[in-house]
Amino acid sequence: MPAPECTDILPPPPAFTTMEALRTACTTLPAPDSAARQVIAARDATLTKPPGSLGRLEALVAWLGAWQGRPDPMLDRVRVVIFAGNHGVVAQGVSPWPASVTAQMIGNFAAGGAAINQIARSAGATLRVVPLAGLAPTADFTQAPALDDDAFLDAVSAGHAAVEADMDLLCLGEMGIGNTTAAAAMAAGLFGGSGHDWAGRGTGLDAAGVAHKARVIDAALARHADVRHDPLAVARCLGGRELAAILGAVLAARHRRIPVLLDGFVCTAAAAPLACLNPSGLAHTTLAHRSAEAGHAALARALNLSPLLELDLRLGEATGAALAVPLLRAAVACHAGMATFAQAGVSERT
Ligand SMILES: O=C(O)c1ccc[n+]([C@@H]2O[C@H](COP(=O)([O-])O)[C@@H](O)[C@H]2O)c1
Ligand SMILES: Cc1cc2nc[nH]c2cc1C
Questions:
Q1: Could you name the active-site residues (predicted)?
Q2: How far is CA 235 from CA 54, 119, 149, 303, 332, in A?
Q3: Where are the beta strands (DSSP E) in 220-328?
Q4: How far apart are CA 127 and CA 267, in angstroms?
Q5: For range 60-75, the mean pLDDT
Q6: Which ligand lies nearest to the CA atom of residue 287 in the structure?
Q7: Is 317 among the catalytic positions?
Q8: What is the CB neighbour count within 10 angstroms for residue 342?
Q9: Does residue 175's CB lie within 6 angstroms of at least one atom of ligand 2?
């Protein structure tokens, strides 16, 4: 008699139960497959084009293949994951929108009515939305750490668990009213500077609103000045649940050798602690776009990330990441489908 089918109804155990276990996972990271990269470079040199003439598309194919461990990179299973959370700092008037919009937009994602639903479908990607802790807000980080150790590790573990092993490419994004304040506070905590240097308009603040947001960030930086030397403590005290989950997902993808497309300012700030803990920590990621949010260009520079697209988006919800997928598909199609000089009977360079 066949064994009954077993359905796992319990959530997986948390990936990380101590900060030290998480720190170790962030510092001991696998390298890309250099053999796959070499095979890709060798084929690229035979294709009917001047060497290097497909510019960054050539580098993208090599990047995909090196992390997938395949000389023939695939984009059959492209997944968009949006993490959602709420922020206590919204009580300080840092967003023009009420916190209730976070839950309402999750309803909109589920109904298929958001921008990301359309972009993910047109990019041939599946979409998953992961609300964190029932959308319970973090503490207002001008008054206390946003999260205690356990809540932070739970959120990182939830992000880690959301990365299934069988993805070819992971596009990350977020939804959370108030989270551009958390992202700006994290950027300042990790890379220095004040609220003025990192605060932007978010979902539509005017100049006075941005100045107020900068003062709120300065208050948070003053309260948590003691954690600036520790990237994980910065993420715990000044970040939020969806940002912690993005960190966990970027880490899980690295350990599974899954290439990642990062979205805008919030997503980049969330992933940044990994680069601060390990100089090659974000090597398996590509920054899909440069958001119109004021601090994003500086944050990308600080992380040595060069965005693929500049479309003045400032939406979040992984829209920029999903928009870069067709570019990757085109790059892979060229690499796989182009004729070689020998096949096409085209003379090589003299
Ligand atoms: O990541 C970005 O580049 C970005 C820039 C501006 C706005 N957002 C989105 O807007 C929300 C946060 O904006 P705010 O003004 O409430 O802090 C959140 O849901 C983000 O997905 C995201
Ligand atoms: C309507 C709305 C949609 C969003 N999507 C991501 N962040 C958002 C913020 C708002 C306010």
A1: 317
A2: 38, 29, 11, 16, 35
A3: 260-262, 285-287
A4: 16
A5: 98
A6: 1
A7: yes
A8: 10
A9: yes
Instruction: Tell me the ligand closest to 116's alpha carbon.
Output: 2
For ligand 1, atom 11: residue with the closest CA = 177
Give me ligand 1 centre to Cα 65, in Å.
32
The confidence score (pLDDT) of residue 3 equals 45
More confident residue, 12 or 5: 12
Cα 158 from chain centre: 15
Check: pTM over 0.90? Answer yes or no.
Answer: yes
Buried residues in 210-236 as b, exposed as e (16+ CB within 10 A)? bebbbbbbbbbbebbeebbebbbbbbb
Domains of the chain: 5-344 (3.40.50.10210)
What is the ipTM metric for this complex?
0.99
pLDDT band per the 50, 70, 90 thresholds, residue 14: confident
Average pLDDT over residues 294-303: 98
**What confidence score (pLDDT) does residue 10 get?**
65
Tokens read off for 55? 């510019």
DSSP string, 150-191: HHHHHHHHHHHHT--TT-SEEEEEEE-TTHHHHHHHHHHHHH
pLDDT above 90 coverage of the chain, percent: 95
Atom of ligand 2 nearest to the CA of 116: 5
Residue pLDDT, tens place only, 103-129: 999 999 999 999 999 999 999 999 999
